[in-house]
Design goal:
Elements: H1 10-19, E1 21-24, E2 28-35, E3 42-46, H2 54-82, E4 86-93, H3 102-115
Parallel strand pairs: 3-4
Antiparallel strand pairs: 1-2, 2-4
């Protein structure tokens, strides 16, 4: 995931956690908040100590970053179609994600983003 799509400031994480809407999945939690000021998509990734050791937390974050990297163009297209404002997203890894595959992480993110209304339906033809 490119740096321009990253949510990095502590104040932004706190704001999104406090006022955003959350969506849960057994592998990951998505917290989303519309961001009218910047108009861009920003994604923050977190993995707490409940996820496991540092090796497991880092693996979980790498999985989420890579899975999200492939989904960003679809989210950007959705924003362009709806003339919508930007979004700030936080992805919080759950303990099961450390042992999941990239395909599992990607399907979990796709289901969460669809529930949040941020992902365009993908033609599977």
């Amino acid at each position: 995931m490119q740096r321009r799509f990253r949510l990095s400031r502590s104040e932004d994480f706190k704001r999104v956690r406090r006022t955003g809407k959350s969506y849960a999945h057994p592998l990951v939690v998505l917290v989303a908040q519309a961001n009218g000021s910047s108009g861009h998509l920003k994604v923050g990734i977190a993995a707490g100590k409940m996820t496991g050791t540092a090796v497991h937390r880092n693996r979980a974050k790498r999985l989420l970053r890579e899975a999200m990297r492939t989904l960003i163009p679809s989210i950007a297209l959705r924003q362009a179609q709806d003339n919508a404002s930007g979004w700030d997203l936080i992805l919080i890894a759950r303990p099961a994600l450390a042992s999941a595959t990239l395909a599992d992480a990607r399907s979990a993110l796709m289901s969460l983003l669809k529930r949040a209304g941020l992902l365009l339906p993908i033609d599977e033809s």
